[in-house]
Design brief:
The protein has about 270 residues and is an alpha+beta fold. The chain has one domain: Clavaminate synthase-like (Double-stranded beta-helix, 4-Layer Sandwich). It contains five helices and 18 strands. Strands 1, 2, 3, 4, 5, 6, 7, 8, 16 and 18 form a ten-stranded mixed sheet that branches. It has a three-stranded antiparallel sheet with strand order 15-9-17. It has a three-stranded antiparallel sheet with strand order 11-10-14. A hairpin with a 2-residue loop joins strand 6 and strand 7. It is globular and about 50 Å long. The two termini are about 35 Å apart.
């Protein structure tokens, strides 16, 4: 990893391969306003940022997220009792491992979260990594004729796996190609195919095939980053230019994280 400096705030960061940034020796509670702006830029350009060895609690975590924008919550998830704006991600007490595929968080609402962050409370002895895909690369490496053919396409994102009431959002249309409001780069905006139900102006069977091809194009193994959790980690990513999934195979030990979401206010 090649070290560098994050903007002018004298924050040491390490460029990860094939993408992403790791920050060491900095507490999230010590970030000034310039550092927060630098963090947003790093997320927009690198996709995700890892903070190591954080000593703060959930209240510090929520305060940090609120500095990035309005905090939101995915209805149907299990809230943290003392911090209801966070939800629990855990394998404790489960007979079968949780199911996880590459996806974008809560993309079925009109205003999806810009950022998702996870705070590690209990890290398993082995396994339980989180993988990230680079959706900038996914778009950039598409053939030009595909970009031209689908330039105005919109995809219907729908909810799955959660119990919602009739008055809650369950689906929303989003552009297939999105230009990031900070970086200016174009990204392929997808989630797991079972939640991408239609493409505007296209027959359902054709749309299904195209979505699956684009999805597989996005998650080719040599483009992925695999994060191995350590105690005290906080990982935050930009949902507008990444997808992610947890690897629940061969996990040994408990895996408990708290998750927070920050709204995208640019929509």
């Amino acid at each position: 990893m090649e070290p560098g400096k994050m903007n002018r705030d004298n924050i040491d960061f390490y460029q990860l391969a094939p993408f992403g940034v790791e920050i060491q020796g900095v507490e999230i509670t010590d970030l000034n306003d310039q550092a927060i702006d630098s963090l947003k830029n790093a997320l927009a350009n690198q996709g995700f940022v890892i903070f190591r060895q954080q000593s703060g609690n959930d209240a510090d975590f929520v305060a940090f997220l609120k500095r990035l924008g309005p905090v939101t919550f995915t209805v149907g998830e299990t809230p943290v009792p003392h911090q209801p704006s966070l939800n629990i991600v855990s394998n404790v007490g489960r007979i079968r491992p949780p199911r996880s595929v590459f996806h974008t968080d809560t993309s079925y609402v009109d205003q999806p979260p810009a950022f998702t962050a996870l705070r590690a409370l209990t890290v398993p002895l082995s396994g339980g990594e989180t993988l990230f895909s680079n959706q900038y690369w996914a778009y950039k490496t598409l053939p030009e004729w595909v970009k031209e053919e689908l330039v105005d396409a919109e995809v219907l994102h729908v909810v799955s796996g959660l119990t919602l009431t009739e008055d809650q959002e369950t689906q929303s249309w989003h552009p297939l190609f999105r230009q990031h409001p900070i970086s200016g780069h174009w990204a392929l905006f997808l989630t797991t195919p079972e939640r991408c139900q239609r493409i505007s102006g296209m027959l359902p069977e054709v749309a299904e095939r195209i979505i699956r091809l684009l999805y597989q194009h996005s998650i080719r193994h040599y483009r992925l980053y695999r994060h191995q959790w350590q105690s005290g980690d906080i990982v935050i990513w930009d949902n507008r230019c990444t997808m992610h999934r947890a690897d629940h195979t061969n996990v040994v030990g408990d895996r408990v994280l708290h998750r927070g979401l920050v709204l995208d206010t640019t929509l």
